[in-house]
Amino acid sequence: MRAKSVFFLTAAMAVAGLTGLIAHQWTEARIEAALAQATTPAQAATPPPPPPARVLVVRGDVASGTAIALEDLHFVDWPRANLAEVYFEEGEATVEDFIGAVARRPIAAGQPMIPSLVVRPGERGYLAAILEPGMRAAAVPVDATSGIAGLVFPGDRVDLVLTHDLDTGSGKRQPRRASETVLTAVRVLALDQRIEQIEGQPVVARTATLELTPKQVEMVATLTEIGRLSLSLRGLKQQDGSADKAPAAPVLTRSFTLDTEVSRLIRRGPASKGRPTSAVKVVRAGDTETLRFAK
User: Model-level pTM?
Assistant: First the structure.
């Protein structure tokens, strides 16, 4: 009986010791966890992702050489992870900054606008970009009078009037002059080095750059040596209110005015009386006859 008591007492003491050891280890683990949590700073909350960027993109396809209009561009949300430095973000640029720019090459719909896609007014190469296919640019000298006091702007259409001396062949010293409208509906590309319209700021230019065909460039180069060229501004509308549709290329005309038509004090020479004529000598069987024809 005593042996059993000793056995149970021994077993109870062993179980109690084991339980105490387990409780001690669990308590120490809890204390260490509490200490670690107290000494370690709380982990910061994950910041929200940044808002998307607003990037300037093209609404629809734009062909090469096409001028950009207001409705061709708009701003859209763009992931910042895919944001390139050459893109134009809202606040850094506006749609109005690209009005009048010309596409250097075809631009697909939805493509972000970047500087290399277009050439803007004032930038190098803009004049070549706005020329119509097959046309050339040529400069003519103008002044305050021949340039209409600075009221002609790039994009206007003008007629070219040539004023020059006439060779009457009479040997007289009195000069004879005439004016001719040599080209009509010529588009003005630039005045001096300005290729953009500056509303309300007329500037008297010394040169006007015109859009001409290759043949007309040769003609204008000759005309500037013959006499003085003046610009005659064409209206946007005709008297009946319809649009004045300019032709695709300037037109050569035959309109002219002699000095005798504008001044009665200038005497008409023998060759200028009546209609001009030409003489032809006809020889028949030794007989000579002079025939005159009106031109």
Answer: 0.57
- What CA–CA distance (Å, rounded) separates 203 from 139? 17
Residues pairing with 181 in the sheet: 161, 255
Torsion of CA 137, 143, 145, 150, to 10 degrees: 70
- Please check whether residue 172 is in contact with residue 108, taking contact to mean a CB–CB distance below 8 angstroms: no
Domain ranges of the chain: 1-29, 53-128, 135-272
DSSP string, 34-65: HHHHHHSPPPPPPPPPPPPEEEEEESS-B-TT
pLDDT digits (tens, 9 = 90+) for 61-97: 988 888 888 899 999 999 988 888 999 999 888 998 8
Architecture of domain 53-128: Alpha-Beta Complex (3.90)
Distance CA 60, CA 76 (A): 14
Q: Please tell me whether residue 123 adopts helix, strand or coil conformation.
A: coil
pLDDT in tens, 113-170: 998 898 887 777 888 888 888 899 998 888 777 667 677 888 888 989 888 887 666 5
**Angle value at C-alpha 187, between 186 and 190, nearest 5 degrees:** 130
